[in-house]
Amino acid sequence: MKSIKSYHLLVGVLLIAALFLTGCEGAGHKFVKKTEFKDSDKIVLTFAGPVDEVWATNVANFSCYEKPDPDIVLTIKEAVLSPEKTKLTLIFEAPLNTGEAHILSTTNIMSEGQDMGAALLTVKKLYFGVLMTIFLGAALIKNFVFTKYLGLCVFFGCSQKRSTAIGMGMVFTIVIAFAATMAWALYQFVLKPYQLTFLNIVVFIGLVSLSVQGVDTILRKINPALFKAFGVYLVLVIANCIAIAVPLILADNEYTGWESFSLALGAGIGFLIALFLMACVREKLELAKVPPSFQGLPIAFVTAGLFALAFLGFSGLSIY
Q1: N or C: which end of the chain has fewer CB atoms below 10 A?
Q2: What are the start-end ranges of the H helices in 23-151?
Q3: Where does residue 23 fall: left (phi above 0), alpha (psi -120 to 50 degrees), or beta otherwise?
């Protein structure tokens, strides 16, 4: 009996992982099995059955644009149908920005003389790649501290010692992940449907404060020792403007739940990395012969500027 339960649990975990890796959205039409990017200037459509060659090779039957820019229609140079007539390759005149989702619309699909209806398809990269891009972007490529200069007050205040930096970074990561998840749910199911998006800033600030209070209360009851270690830093999270920037970004970009969590986790890890690196250097600076006029915050600002220059090396990095 235990082995059967373990088997069912394993199957459930694998199914959830599959949804996580591939995303929950289908191709968008019952007759279109898959849409994908190929090379830098092609989109490939895989159909459930053979399509008429006359319809498939006529580029006038297709229209494509990037999801954030619906007014800019991309020019399709050629449409090539495979010999089995189930795979169609659309070749564009200019390279595609595969980092963005593309919307591809077709006229009524013709298959063996039958009208299968028009299709409105979403073309995007592997969902796991999208999540990793968002995570790495928030943690390294577009680090909120070194590229956006957010959270500097807490950054300079909590980066004098490595132990303090690690504690603040861990607490901030937990709180921002919880707050961003709540912010996404509230935005998608309350603010957006009822056209209350003008209250985003006010509501998100309240959510961050509520999240801090919630984590504070839970730690106080469940693990008093951990509360004593983290209690000092919990209040400082409210003063960190990254905590409000993340919900605003996920709302502005219409991120899904997984994407919002990846953004929040990346922002928290990125803040932890920034704090730890700065703390390591500042501990060394205490033993260095720093000119009197540069001691304290001046040399800290200079060091932060050098770190910011170093993080510019991640600009333009693309993993997927």
Answers
A1: N
A2: 53-56, 127-136
A3: left
Tell me how many degrees the CA angle 87-92-97 measures, rounded to the nearest 5: 105
**pLDDT tens-digit series, residues 244-284:** 999 999 999 889 899 999 999 999 999 999 999 999 999 99
- pLDDT 10s digits, 6-23: 444 444 444 444 444 443
Give the SS3 label for residue 294: helix
**DSSP secondary structure of 153-187:** HHHHHS-SSHHHHHHHHHHHHHHHHHHHHHHHHHI
**Separation of alpha carbons 71 and 20, rounded Å:** 31
The residue whose two tokens read 């013709």 is: 110
Residue 198 burial by Cβ neighbours in a 10 Å radius (0-12, 13-18, 19+)? exposed
Cβ contact 183:247 at 8 Å: yes
d(CA 218, CA 209): 14
pLDDT reading at 182 higher than 60: yes
Domains of the chain: 28-123 (2.60.40.1220), 130-314 (no CATH)
The tokens describing 50, both together, are 């053979």
Residue located via tokens 């694998």: 14
